[in-house]
Amino acid sequence: MNKAERRAKIDARVKQGLLGRWYAICKSTEVRKDRPYGGKLLGRKVVLWRDEDGKIQCIEDYCPHRGAALSLGEVHDGNIGCRYHGLVLDGTGTILRVPAMPECAFEGRKVNEAYAVQEANDAVYVYIPSKERPEPPKLQLPEEFTSKDWTGFLCTAAWQANYQLALDNLADPMHGCYLHASSFTLAFGAKQDLLKLDNHDNGFHVSRVGQVGENFDWVEMVVEEGGLYCRLDIPYPPAAGPGGHMRIIGFVTPIDDDSCKVFFWRMRMVTGTAREAWRFMYRAALEPRHWHVLEQDRIMLEEMTDAAGRRDMLYQHDLGVSRIRQLVLNAASEQVDFEIAAELEAAE
């Protein structure tokens, strides 16, 4: 394979999304025992459902008989049944029954790829294996998810934009005082500043130099084995209730080359009676304001030119953008090189 072919494979992997990662796919409440849930990530259609014990199963959303979507089917005794001709598969992707032809030779064949699944903090995560990491590593989650001091709400939305644009947006603190200038809290602070970037063992921290606690002033991108997420704080005034700053924990899932799904937990460090007061206040008054901010991001990213990311003229404020792009590119290069080496070894 020549350099141009290798580069094309790397570029395609970057655009599609990295393999060997855990990805959030939906809310836990969306996966039920009585009907399947159809989702898509990294261009792969998958179907999820709960078996009789409540455990989530996930396989390719494809009936091996004629290609119908299993997500349009039914759950039978903890297994998935195709609505088109009734084939029943289990959570390993094995055909259990062909009702229209008893004792069919297809029964007992494992034909669909099955995926590892975990639930955590109101979300469902699916592992997409890679050549060098076929088995899932431990799902590493933010410490806020397991702390008794933090509480929050998950919101999720599908955006018609490549996942890289969403990551760039998160790694860019300077856009807050411009794009979100009409929001509840992000109108404050200086519109001129410098940024600094500090690398650490699991990612990096990018922050504004001239101000702290005024706006979306910093973000930490966390790169764990098998996953990536971010955390940031949005300053909140006393009028927004107890708990201090609003902490955002964000995950981005590639759906396909042209769309992604974002998962944002809005969290505050608050306990006891104050916790219940804040949760009520969030639902009653604050949640629509947060959706307003997300809509501003969505519209901006969806309307970006197809050349975004390829013709960008980056400057000092884009330290975080450059770093997250480099991390993704490095990981994609390692994956592709491993696959190329494996193919050459198999051909010898």
In short:
The protein is an alpha+beta fold.
Q: Report how far apart the termini are.
A: 15 Å
Number of domains: 2
Supply the helix-strand structural class: alpha+beta
Q: How confident overall, as mean pLDDT?
A: 93
What percent of residues adopt helix (DSSP H or I)? Answer: 10-25%
* Overall morphology: globular
CATH topology of the largest domain: Naphthalene 1,2-dioxygenase Alpha Subunit, Chain A, domain 1
- Biggest sheet character: 7 strands, antiparallel
SS strand fraction: 25-35%
The CATH class of the largest domain is Alpha Beta
Number of helices: 5
The low-confidence parts are: none
Largest beta sheet: what is the strand line-up? Answer: 11-17-16-15-14-13-12
C-alpha-based Rg, rounded: 22 Å
Looking at the chains present, what oligomeric state does this protein adopt? single chain
Features:
single chain; 348 residues; alpha+beta; Rieske Iron-sulfur Protein; Naphthalene 1,2-dioxygenase Alpha Subunit, Chain A, domain 1; 2 domains; seven-stranded antiparallel sheet; four-stranded antiparallel sheet; 5 helices; 17 strands; 30% strand; globular
